[in-house]
Design goal:
By secondary structure, the chain is of the alpha+beta class. The chain has helices at about 15-40, 45-65, 95-100, and strands spanning about 125-130, 145-155, 165-175, 180-185. It is elongated and about 110 Å long.
C-alpha cells in the first residue's frame, strides 16, 4: 500500500537540522576567528600613520640637503668638478662630518648636537629617540614613543654610478613595535649647489 502524497511529511528531520546548525556554527566561528586574528595582528592605524609621517619628514629633510663634491664650507665647494678639486674636505665618503670637515670650519649642527648636517651623507648613522625632535631641537608632543634612524649608502641607480647616487633608508619605530622603513635615492645632480 502506498502512502498518498498529502500524507507524506514535509520539512527537515531533527538530524538534518542539527547537522545544519553545526555546519553554520563552524563557519561563523571561523569568520569570527579570522576577524580576531587580523585585528589583533594589525598595528593601530594611528600609530602606523604617525610612524609613516615621521619617516616621510626625516626622508624629506635628508633628501633636501645638497650632495656636493666638497664640504659646503670648503673654499672650492662652488667650483669643484670632482672630489679631487676640493681644497680640504670632500663629501665622497660616508663618515661623520667631524672627521671630514676642515678643522677651521664652523660647527654646523642639527638638534644642538656636535655633528654637522650640511650634506646628504652626513646623515649616515643618524638616530633620534626615544622621542622625535624638530629641526630646532624641540621634542614634538605625542611622539615621545617613537625613534628614527637613517642609513646612507652608495648605490648605483639605473645609469648613474654608485659614487654619484646614494640610497637613503629611514626607519621609524613606534609603540607596539610598529616599524616603518622608507627608501629613497639622492643623486649628485647639482654638485656645486650650496645651502
Amino acid at each position: 500500500m502506498s502512502i498518498p502524497d498529502h500524507a507524506r511529511q514535509r520539512g527537515l528531520s531533527l538530524i538534518e537540522q542539527i547537522v545544519f546548525i553545526v555546519i553554520v556554527g563552524v563557519g561563523v566561528a571561523g569568520v569570527i576567528t579570522a576577524f580576531f586574528v587580523s585585528t589583533r595582528g594589525s598595528a593601530d592605524p594611528m600609530i602606523q600613520k604617525q610612524a609613516l609621517s615621521v619617516a616621510e619628514a626625516v626622508m624629506e629633510e635628508v633628501q633636501l640637503q645638497p650632495f656636493t663634491y666638497c664640504d659646503p664650507d670648503d673654499d672650492n665647494a662652488a667650483t669643484a668638478t670632482s672630489v679631487a678639486g676640493c681644497a680640504a674636505a670632500n663629501e665622497n665618503n660616508l663618515v661623520p662630518e667631524a672627521v671630514d670637515v676642515p678643522p677651521t670650519g664652523p660647527a654646523e649642527t642639527r638638534l644642538g648636537g656636535d655633528r654637522p648636517f650640511d650634506n646628504v651623507n652626513d646623515y649616515n648613522g643618524f638616530a633620534m629617540g626615544p622621542g622625535i625632535s624638530n629641526l630646532s631641537g624641540a621634542t614634538v608632543a605625542g611622539l615621545d614613543g617613537y625613534s628614527a634612524s637613517v642609513t646612507v649608502a652608495n648605490q648605483a641607480l639605473g645609469g648613474v654610478a654608485a659614487t654619484e647616487s646614494l640610497l637613503i633608508a629611514v626607519t621609524v619605530t613606534g609603540p607596539g613595535n610598529t616599524t616603518v622603513t622608507l627608501h629613497g635615492y639622492r643623486t649628485r645632480f647639482a654638485p656645486n649647489a650650496l645651502p
